[in-house]
Specification:
It is a single chain. This protein is α/β, with parallel strands linked by helices. It has three domains: 276 residues, Aldolase class I (TIM Barrel, Alpha-Beta Barrel); 52 residues; 112 residues, Double Stranded RNA Binding Domain (2-Layer Sandwich). The chain is 39% helix and 20% strand. The strands form four sheets. The protein has an eight-stranded parallel barrel with strand order 2-3-4-5-6-7-8-9, surrounded by eight helices. The longest helix is centred in the C-terminal third of the chain and has 17 residues.
Length: 515
């Protein structure tokens, strides 16, 4: 008999803590539905007390998700837990995940609390959360740097108080697989009531070891892994869901647990959706979901694969979605085919008018691009959502001139707060000129941190997906834009970032002392 390995996805919470990766309520719902199709067990939808937007997003996910458990994060504070309970009230299956720091440095420098106070607060928090749901998870934050004896004490107390999942986070990515696996083994052996809870791990990738640490924990008895699509997360990211899942499924000879309940053919779709929404492209050599993950260029490799796939491929590309969902659409495709394909991708519209607008965008794109793939459709819908939600600044027209021996020049018109503005500017290139012309009108005072271009599909007629990262007063945002014309895509991305910078909506970080 093998145990089920529970997959706890925190893309919508920890993944969103990547600088510039904030998601709207509608985007979180889209990703949550994709995760539900993947059949992940638990979806951590957000940190409800962080902001009104976070509360509403968790609430919206809780309303629509039926087959996965929806989780909300809360510090070990009554107000956090009450807010999480309220956000999850309509969930078909709800979990509250509460945490408090237990490492000496965190208790002294951040919490300014004595160990006895931390234990007391942990017990109080778990009991408070139990008033809203029996499904309570407790995390001793920075467990990877906590003293073992104290960690045993606080975990035992949390289990006695009613926590049924104990998550051991390597919060700062400090651990090494052998030692982290041993930590999980010792906790399970030394804590008298450890059999009353499922042990979980949440590993960060600061040393590039998040997946290795997570798998070492599974080998030592952990039966839940917290992870994110594409390894998204603050700093260097989290353990990548796709790598955890396929490692366990591929090496069934080593891992004494099962992931048969997951539909792994949905992995690639989830990866592309998260990449499209956050503007964080997946590098070609990324395991499982990178463009080169199943590509073979070496003659020896090609020959071996042609003779027998197993010579150089340890898993099938089809099993993670590479050959699925490749219907090609074009300008002759009808509205019903368009609606059906979007529904298969998990995209549905609340009103017929939204479908009509999206279909009009599709037809416009089809006139520019002969073949339209699923990735194009994802980008099209994402861009439509971005424009609908950020109406302060809108692009009206753009004209650029780039000629050998001449200074590139841009002329641009926008609508800002309902008023039309125009400006011209020179630059080092057409994109630089367009950005400078925008700043002439907006004067945002922001700093450009990143300009990235990624082709959505292959071919010279492919849409270019541009990501722009801006910073102002310590706040970092990502802007996205897509178009077959890369300069127009760049202007759209910059405008999207400007709308976010000028927005008054702020998110609080879950690890801050006060919200």
């Amino acid at each position: 008999m093998t145990d089920k390995l529970i997959i706890f996805d925190t893309t919508l919470r920890d993944g969103e803590q990547s600088p510039g990766a904030s998601m709207t309520k509608e985007e979180k719902v889209r990703i949550a539905k994709a995760l539900e199709r993947l059949r992940v067990d638990v979806i951590e939808a957000g940190f409800p007390i962080a902001s009104v937007g976070d509360f509403e997003a968790v609430q919206a996910v809780a309303r629509v998700i039926k087959d996965s458990t929806v989780c909300g994060l809360a510090r070990a504070l009554d107000k956090d837990i009450e807010r999480a309970g309220e956000a999850l009230k309509e969930a078909n299956s709800a979990r509250i995940h509460t945490f408090i720091a237990t490492s000496p440095i965190h208790m002294k420098m951040k919490l300014r609390m004595e160990p006895d106070q931390v234990v007391e607060q942990a017990i109080k928090a778990v009991k408070k959360a139990r008033q809203f749901t029996d499904n309570v998870e407790f995390s001793p934050e920075d467990a990877g740097r906590s003293e073992l004896d104290f960690l045993c004490r606080v975990v035992e107390a949390a289990i006695s108080a009613g926590a049924r999942t104990i998550n051991i986070p390597d919060t700062v990515g400090y651990n090494i697989p052998h030692y982290f696996g041993e930590l999980i083994r010792q906790l399970r052996e030394r804590i008298p009531n450890s059999d009353q809870a499922i042990f979980s791990v949440h590993c960060h990738n600061d040393l590039g070891l998040a997946v290795g640490n997570s798998l070492a924990a599974v080998l030592n008895g952990a039966r839940q892994v917290e992870c994110t699509i594409n390894g998204l997360g603050e700093r260097a990211g989290n353990a990548a869901l796709e790598e955890i899942v396929m490692a366990v499924k591929t090496r069934k000879d080593i891992f004494p647990c099962s992931l048969d309940h997951l539909d792994t053919t949905q992995i690639l779709n989830c990866s592309r959706l998260v990449s499209s929404i956050t503007g964080f492209p997946v590098q070609p050599n990324k395991a499982i979901v990178g463009a080169n993950a199943f590509a073979h260029e070496s003659g020896i490799h090609q020959d071996g694969v042609l003779k027998s796939r197993e010579t150089y491929e340890i898993m099938r590309a089809e099993d993670v979605g590479w050959t699925a969902n490749r219907m090609v659409m074009g300008k002759h495709s009808g509205r019903n085919a368009f609606r059906t394909r979007l529904k298969e991708l998990g995209i549905e519209f609340a009103a017929e008018a939204q479908l009509n607008e999206a279909f009009a965008r599709f037809k416009e794109l089809a006139d520019k691009k002969h073949e339209i793939f699923d990735d194009d459709l994802q980008a099209l819908v994402t861009e439509a959502n971005l424009e609908a939600e950020n109406e302060s600044i809108q692009l009206i027209a753009l004209k650029v001139c780039s000629e050998t021996g001449e200074v590139p020049h841009a002329s641009i018109s926008i609508r800002m707060d309902g008023v039309e503005h125009s400006a011209v500017a020179d630059g080092g290139g057409p994109v630089d000129a367009a950005f400078k012309a925008l700043e002439v009108m907006v004067n945002s005072g922001s700093q450009l941190l990143l300009y990235s271009v990624n082709n959505i599909t292959t071919g010279t007629d492919a849409q270019g997906e541009v990501t722009v990262r801006l910073q102002k007063d310590g706040r970092i945002v990502n802007g996205q834009g897509a178009d077959t014309d890369i300069v127009i895509a760049s202007a759209k991305a910059y405008i999207n970032a400007l709308n976010k910078i000028l927005s008054k909506v702020q998110r609080a970080h879950p690890q801050t002392g006060n919200v």
